[in-house]
Amino acid sequence: MAKPKATSENIYVGLDIGTTKIRxxxxxxxxxxxxxxxxxxSAESTGIRxxxxxxxxxxxxxxxxxxxxxxxxxxxxxxxxxxxxAGGHIKSFNSRGVIAVKNGEVMQNDVTRVIESxxxxxxxxxxxxxxxxxxxxxxxxxxxxxxPIGMSGVRLEVEVHIVTGAxxxxxxxxxxCQRAGxxxxxxxxxxxxxxxxxxxxxxxxxxxCLIDGGGGTTDMAAFNRGAVYHTAVLQIGGNNFTHDLTVGxxxxxKEAEKLKMRHGCVWMDMVSPDDVxxxxxxxxxxxxxxxxxxxxxxxxxxxxxxxxxxxxEFQKKNLAYMFSAGVVLSGxxxxxxxxxxxxxxxxxxxxRIGRPSNIGGLxxxxxxxxxxxxxxxxxxxxxxGKSSNAIVTSTGTSGSEEKMFGDIWSRMRAWxxxxx
Length: 420
Known about the structure:
Layout: E1 11-17, E2 21-29, E3 35-44, E4 48-49, E5 52-53, H1 56-74, E6 80-85, E7 91-100, H2 108-119, E8 127-139, E9 142-145, E10 155-166, H3 167-179, E11 183-189, H4 190-198, H5 201-206, E12 208-213, E13 218-224, E14 227-234, H6 238-249, H7 253-263, E15 276-279, E16 288-291, H8 292-316, E17 327-331, H9 339-347, E18 351-353, E19 359-361, H10 372-384, H11 401-415
Parallel strand pairs: 1-6, 3-19, 6-11, 12-17, 17-18
Antiparallel strand pairs: 1-2, 2-3, 4-5, 7-10, 8-9, 8-10, 12-13, 13-14, 15-16
Helix pairs in contact: 1-3, 4-10, 6-7, 6-8, 8-9
């Protein structure tokens, strides 16, 4: 008996376009304000480098493969999705705006005006504001206000975190999805999407840092008092770990990736000097055996570099005091054995592995840090309350690619601030 098609009501699709993998997650909103996972798909990604599209055709084919796999598992015909964005082109900073309250009572238009005032900053040519995320409102000197509407006062201020991205890079992601037959409903910064899947409200409130290690980049987002205070992108990812093994062990990149996945460890205390692994050679030379600590030493050096850079970022931005809840790791890097111990040692704060939570359905299939972003994208879109309309009868989109992309920017600016 054929699997019945799911209805389009309350269907949401998250599409994580990563450097090494493209993942699609199909979900339905449930009564607990979470989502039930209906299906998922993944495909090798060869058209992305460090989070940026470098080959549209290869990216289109990979998106199609991942989407088709998710369709077969869920019984849903996917025509639209929420998509993540990452890469070294992402830049962020904090800003402040101030206005006079016209009628002595803060109204919605006052909140809109003060946020627009904070966002009125100079950004480089070719860049666009992705997110304007309020941190706190200040009314007549009273700080730490989350929602000032209805309060009395004459001077309203807001502190915000602004995220910008290269228009061309985001446009290429959108264009790749469109050519794969997927309408891009909205675009989210990937570490913000991942945080939605793996962080609790309590952690955001008392202070936490998410570090999401992907194939091309490692991204971070710092939260305190429920708001985003800092985001950053480090252009070091899982591919760098693999390359280190390729060079250090004189083996192929494919073999190095297998070794990393099967035997990867970044904490020397966890491996025995007697442990041995098989390494295939190149150029027709016979394979050989090496002590596992040699492999661990190579990976640990790279992991130490990553966490040391973030420790420096914490100090430079005066963030370390904020992390009462410590650090949460997600992405492929979080699956390396010993990564919690190493991160705790370097960063000096408690560390845990972040796995998607508040989900039902096929939840066991996404209980892995690598699904944090794709599940988070579906959760964010479900939180918005508008179905992604995964089953539609029409194909394609109306208007030009430029108009479609402009509409996405407008929708993002209009409502994303409600969630952070």
